[in-house]
Amino acid sequence: MPSSAAPTAAAPGAELAPRPTPRRPLRSALGLLRACHLPPTLAVTALVTALAGGSGRDAAGCLLVAAAVLTGQLSVGWCNDRVDLARDRAAGRRDKPLVTGLLAPRTVSVAAGCALALCVPLSLAGGAAAGAAHLTGVAAAWGYDLGVKRTLASWLPYALGFGLLPAFVTLGLPGRPWPPIWSLAAGALLGVGAHLTNVLPDIDADLAAGVRGLPQRLGRRRTRALAPLPLLAACALLVFGPPGPVGPADWAALAVTAALALATVLPSTAPPSTAPPAAGGWRGRLPFLTTLALAATCVTLLLLHGAALA
Known about the structure:
mainly alpha; UbiA_prenyltransferase; 18 helices; disordered N terminus; globular
């Protein structure tokens, strides 16, 4: 996004360059928490851990799942902020601790590498097959951060990451059962929907920064119209895919999902803006927030049919 400051000899965003202030451990810790995309990191960790418990993992197994998912998500979040540093400076992202100088770039790089290094043995602790499934999803997320998000294949890392989560859970169970196809397909569809809705508030700024993934190429209006479709399809698979009759809770979850999906396409009362997403308040992040709620609803359905996964 072009800077609104008057032209000077300095590079765009130079006024936001980090100041050489002492970095106390507490400041660095707070900065790392802000840079890791904490709400989605905790949400994904909690949801997958709950899914592991519902599918039959014991307490130790659930703890391993939580640790593996948490370290993987932390590594991806820190990688994202480190890779996007120049772009965030140019866009005036005062909500980013790297931009404001609360963190040094090297600190975030080291943190991402350490989290990834921990994620590998924690993922493999549940077995080679389960670990491979999770690490493939983590690798896809890193690939997204490192450049895939600028291509037409920007949806693929999300589809892989979310689609393989049921496999990570079930392949760590006794007997290493492969999850049913409906759970893999539902996870992949949920991932695609998460991708479309997550970038929706940032499309204008992304285009100004040269990011041309699938949603950016589709444009705001078409992306907003398309985003609910994979989410509704994911919920439908989770309702009608498991064996047995569809119960009242299934119908209720389907209705909730439909309402939440509708919320992602409601037009905003504010005019389009290229301001940083943080400046837009909750309205600008509504599609992303509803996606998290949709994910929770879908995982609730998986918990209701946890035995069917194995």
